[in-house]
Design brief:
The chain is an all-alpha fold. The protein is 67% helix and 0% strand. Among the domains are: 1-97, no CATH class; 336-429, Serine Threonine Protein Phosphatase 5, Tetratricopeptide repeat (Alpha Horseshoe), CATH 1.25.40. InterPro entries: TPR-like_helical_dom_sf (IPR011990).
Length: 429
């Protein structure tokens, strides 16, 4: 069965105007932040839209594009109707089974899968949403005979990273960790299998594999598998060092600091945050520096050093107020005002200033977009614990109940642990 060739989206190209694809992608990311949405838009995505490869954007991109161009419809932007795209995909899927090793990318999440995942949360449905064994995203298996790695393999790795992050935002790490380990193994198998056609392709593959290792490590971290997380973070750091990727190195140290703090290795948490700062300084991202300063502040707080904590918090605020930049890493889309408030609440709770911690945790819950259900549940769980320790049990109880009522479809050992800790404190009243 012959597939029709993609038709270029000239309407979307006209809307880009004189901006470069990278500049336009940055404008899309800024517009997303304005409405509390998260999209991992880059020049390659804009190129695929304009080439007609993406006939209809997913729901997140749809909201952003309609926000950017008020009064226009998806048809005005050059996109096809969602129903037409889905119907064509179903027909193609029925007529042509996917090959065993390489599957095609599907830019539109299945409503059926998403609803099923939200109601059951099983690992099998998580695998389907990730495309592990399905048709959404799969990383091609390496081929022998000196095969040179190209664009298709690299884009598959990058898409796996984005899909895992999207699902984690909604559901937490418990249901995703084991199934997400498979694309990670595939990514590193590609690295071991042979050389890339171009140096830029090889650099992207190293970066993608490292970011995938960090994403899978975070799923392990969030689900309480701390030794697995430590191993994945170390693997990402080694990948960064081998490829000379300072951005990946800063990300790896950032995650390592967070994990070290969570597991009681507070001196290590300080050192990792400071190493991340050294790697991040040349990168031009004030928000990345702010996050690393917050990691350092939390570690000092756990050591009981209030002065060092406050000094690091001051640096974090200074960097944060410089705003976002085009050089901010994709993975930092979660780091806005709600997360900053939540991380500062961590610092004050570690120092035993429960009232101040509760104020910052409350701000995090107020500022957080309800679309990101997992983070909102986490912030509320932190707030409940701070209220309980601040001597406000009725408020803490009410907040804990709100968290429990919102956990359908969310599986996070971190949230469960926070709630259990709050219950223990409330039992003393």
């Amino acid at each position: 069965m012959a597939m029709s060739r993609a038709v270029p989206n000239l309407a979307f190209r006209r809307l880009r105007g004189q901006h470069s694809p990278a500049e336009f992608a940055a404008a899309v990311r800024r517009a997303a932040r304005e409405i509390g949405e998260q999209v991992a838009c880059d020049a390659r995505y804009i190129g695929r839209v304009e080439a007609g490869e993406i006939r209809c954007p997913n729901y997140a991109y749809e909201r952003v594009f309609l926000h950017m161009f008020p009064g226009l419809t998806l048809a005005d932007l050059g996109f096809s109707a969602r129903e037409a795209v889905r119907g064509r995909r179903r027909a193609l899927t029925a007529a042509v089974p996917p090959p065993p090793a390489v599957t095609t990318r599907n830019d539109e999440e299945s409503d059926v899968l998403r609803r099923a995942f939200m109601t059951s949360g099983t690992a099998a449905l998580a695998a389907a949403s990730l495309g592990l064994g399905g048709t959404a995203v799969a990383i091609p298996a390496p081929r022998g005979g000196g095969h040179r790695i190209g664009e298709a393999e690299v884009r598959a790795v990058e898409e796996a990273v984005r899909r895992i992050r999207l699902l984690d935002d909604r559901h937490g790490g418990d249901g995703l960790y084991k199934v997400a380990a498979q694309p990670l193994r595939s990514a590193y198998a590609l690295l071991d299998a042979g050389s890339a056609a171009r140096r830029s392709t090889e650099d992207r593959l190293y970066a993608g594999a490292g970011e995938l290792s960090l994403s899978v490590g975070w799923l392990a971290h969030d689900s309480g598998r701390h030794e697995d997380a430590r191993s994945h973070y170390a693997e990402a750091l080694a990948t960064a060092r081998v490829s000379g990727n300072a951005a990946l190195e800063a990300h790896a140290f950032c995650n390592t600091s967070f994990l070290a703090r969570d597991t009681g290795r507070h001196r290590e948490a300080v050192r990792a945050a400071q190493a991340g700062l050294r790697a991040a300084r040349p990168l031009g991202s004030a928000r990345l520096l702010s996050l690393l300063c917050l990691r350092e502040a939390a570690a000092w707080a756990c050591l009981g050093d209030r002065s060092a904590c406050e000094e690091a918090l001051g640096r974090a605020h200074t960097h944060f107020e410089r705003g976002t930049a085009d050089d901010d890493p994709e993975w930092m889309s979660f780091f806005g005002e709600p997360e900053r408030e939540a991380l500062e609440a961590h610092c004050w709770s570690a120092l035993g200033d429960w009232g101040r911690a509760a104020r910052h945790a409350h701000r995090a819950t107020v500022l957080q977009n309800p679309h990101f259900a997992r983070n909102l549940a986490l912030y509320r769980a932190q707030l409940a614990g701070n209220l309980a320790r601040a001597g406000r049990p009725d408020e803490a109880e009410a907040e804990a109940r709100r968290v429990e009522e919102s956990l359908a479809g969310i599986a996070s050992a971190r949230i469960d642990g926070l709630l259990a800790d709050t219950r223990r404190v409330l039992a003393t009243y």
